[in-house]
Amino acid sequence: MNSTIDIIKNRMSLRKYQNKPISKEHLDIIIESAMRAPTAGNMMLYSILIVEDEEKREKLSITCDNQSFIAKAPLVLIFLADMQRWYDYYNYCDVKEYCKRNQIEFRAPDEADLLLASSDAIIAAQNAVIAAESLGIGSCYIGDIMENYEVHKEMFNLPDKVFPIAMLCMGYYPLDIKRRIKPRFDRKYIVFNESYKRLKNKELEDMFKNRKVKENNKYNAKNFGQYFYARKTGADFAKEMSRSVKEALEFWKKEI
Amino acid sequence: MNSTIDIIKNRMSLRKYQNKPISKEHLDIIIESAMRAPTAGNMMLYSILIVEDEEKREKLSITCDNQSFIAKAPLVLIFLADMQRWYDYYNYCDVKEYCKRNQIEFRAPDEADLLLASSDAIIAAQNAVIAAESLGIGSCYIGDIMENYEVHKEMFNLPDKVFPIAMLCMGYYPLDIKRRIKPRFDRKYIVFNESYKRLKNKELEDMFKNRKVKENNKYNAKNFGQYFYARKTGADFAKEMSRSVKEALEFWKKEI
After folding, report:
1. Which terms does the record give in the GO molecular function aspect (chains A, B) (predicted)?
2. Which residues of B touch A233 (CB under 8 A)?
3. Would the pTM count as exceeding 0.90?
4. Does residue B233 form part of some domain?
5. Residue B201 located in a structural domain
6. Is residue B61 part of a domain?
7. What CATH number is given to the structural domain containing B77?
8. Tens digit of pLDDT for each residue in A115-124?
9. Mind listing the pLDDT tens digit for each residue in A145-177?
10. In Å, how far is B72's CA from the nearest CA of chain A?
11. Consecutive H or E run containing B184
């Protein structure tokens, strides 16, 4: 179709990289591309942390569910949902006093602002992913950056109204890479016309027909659903993510 | 640099479209591109609603903060954070009973799952945006789809564990379009090395130096911060978004 569509269709999550740093020119293009992302009201409700320091990457490889390849990624980018900058500006502009004078409610950021700022951050992240891909630089999202909130807060000096919503590991594709494009679920179970369609058992069975589990598996699961629940949705890292996000929300929503 | 970077850098939010439908071929490419987006554990924690029905678009143009151009967009895509499909599958697989038998906690989706599923949905949405852009199709994000949760829930038949995190209006660029690429904040206030940098008053002043407000404005604001707070963060639509998201979370977290 065109080269952009080709890039999107051939992208894979890359967890092994050439052992060479991202060039300054390429890093600049990636960052500039992220910053061109659409953003609510042109507010840029996000910040980007460039992490190249080896010690920090080592630590992240542990705090983000023990994924050792993180330490070996030449470049790590953390995308932060960020309302702090705007609220600091509001403070600088005496908005609280202005609200009182004009009988407008002054409100701290809440769940909706977290979703909006996270959307901004993720849109920027995906621009970075596609820009990188077009330069021969592969990437892998690490949602686990949402875990261990207190550790990351201290590690990166994050104020209360800043939340790490996504992390990207990046590096040049190895020269001998074999692209493995993972199959997705069939479109008819993901895309609906005009109205949501809740799937019936027969459709769920068909949807998952290619996902199998061994009879003797370490989770004592009798089918793929049980196996996958144990491995993902009900796993320790998911529980930690759940705890961590709740904790982060306490700081996020704290009165200013 | 390359055509993908050019597409990213020249993209603008488009709110006026050619009065012609998106071709089936182009729609398919946009949907397939969205579905190639990276997704946590290959779970595809999102669904996509294709909305072409005129009446529905009319209604959305009202429920999403009265933006009349929504009704005139040839194509509307709603990106849904979706845990319903997986939990229906878990139910089909007797995961609750499996958990009891193996003394694993069975948990309903919570805030962390909403953030993870929303991330999946937004990554897919941004793939759709860039694919569309490469085909001469412009787009505009409508975060206001997070408002009026109850209305949209009924309108699109959304079950409890499905949340509309983003909407895209799409249409072909008008032939006489003048591209207006909005300036972003300076990189030094958005991108940080190794650690977050909280901005000082002097930096905030410099960051916002190009954003001005008229002396006599309808918000009775004395500076840009006050004006912008009244117009955005403290505005009625933001309060509605706040209420709506809280309400949605009640359904999202309800025990299964």
Report:
1. oxidoreductase activity
2. 86, 90, 107, 113
3. yes
4. no
5. no
6. yes
7. 3.40.109.10
8. 999 999 999 9
9. 999 999 999 999 999 999 999 999 999 999 999
10. 16
11. none
